[in-house]
Write a structure and sequence with these properties.
269 residues, Rossmann fold, six-stranded parallel sheet, three-stranded antiparallel sheet, elongated, binds magnesium ion
Length: 269
């Protein structure tokens, strides 16, 4: 059993008693790893292919309708010129969420829904190779992560991932960092329920054999933090250093900017 300290202060209940922690559940994108260059390249490619396919299949459309689609998709994806909106669909949503957003934008420029969905599937099939470790912009670990994971392991605290990336994407990132053996359970978009359903936390905790009340959860999206709170996780922390634009995290939750701000100590007997 361990206790967590943030910048030297115990993460404690109202009486000042530190919460005993047996597991830490980490979000992946923007928390365990810096994914922004990869996600920017992926979202840009989805916009490019969607506009190109639309005009190829519908030569009767004016180029301005391609431009309109591009703008709709950029807003839907949270794609800025040189950044990704950390609260946007590319950063927070799953592949299937973004596929539906794409189809919705195509419907807004005049396509019927079946064709909009089919064209979106083609766009995603053409760009899926830019996601994850296949990308030339491979996600890298956030600064200090390896040291924190080591100190958690040294204190017997279990690590797990709770992410809306698919399982292959989580596995590939952890393997690329030699961190796979350090994470006991991965809860991905392939599991049900998914984040941000608090049931995802409970199902993950059941796999760990650890109660949610003995966990901490760290994420870079308010949806992560509120999910954890609703699931009864006592230590819920925001992580703000994973994006070039700071995520707009609810100040209700303590936030850290570097993993060295978090310390792990053996719980007092
Ligand atoms: Mg995230």
């Amino acid at each position: 059993m361990a206790e967590l300290f943030l910048r030297g202060q115990p993460l404690a209940d109202v009486t000042g008693t530190p919460f005993p922690i047996e597991a830490v559940l980490f979000d992946k994108d923007g928390t365990l790893c810096i994914s922004e260059p990869m996600l920017h390249s992926l979202a840009s490619a989805r916009v490019f292919h969607a506009c190109e396919l639309l005009l190829q299949r519908h030569p009767e459309l004016a180029a301005s309708q391609g431009d309109e689609l591009g703008q709709l998709l950029q807003r839907a994806y949270g794609l800025c010129e040189s950044a990704i909106n950390p609260a946007g669909a590319t950063a927070v949503g799953s592949r299937s969420h973004n596929l539906i957003s794409t189809a919705t934008a195509l419907a807004q420029v005049g396509l019927g829904w079946p064709e909009a969905l089919e064209l979106s599937e083609s766009v995603f099939a053409a760009t899926d190779g830019l996601h994850g470790q296949g990308s030339e912009h491979r996600p890298i670990a956030t600064a200090g992560l390896h040291d924190l994971v080591q100190s958690l392991q040294d204190e017997g605290v279990v690590c797990a991932v709770i992410s809306n990336d698919d399982e292959a994407g989580i596995e590939a990132f952890l393997a690329s960092q030699n961190l796979r053996p350090r994470f006991q359970v991965l809860w991905s978009a392939d599991h049900s329920p998914r984040k941000p359903d608090p049931g995802a936390v409970h199902a993950l905790c059941a796999q760990l054999g650890i109660q949610a009340s003995r966990c901490a959860l760290i994420g870079d999206a308010n949806s992560d933090l509120r999910m954890a709170q609703q699931a009864g996780v006592p230590v819920v922390l925001g992580y703000g250093a994973g994006w070039s634009i700071s995520p707009p995290l609810d100040p209700l939750f303590p936030c850290l900017q570097h993993w060295s701000e978090l310390q792990v100590r053996t719980a007092a007997a």
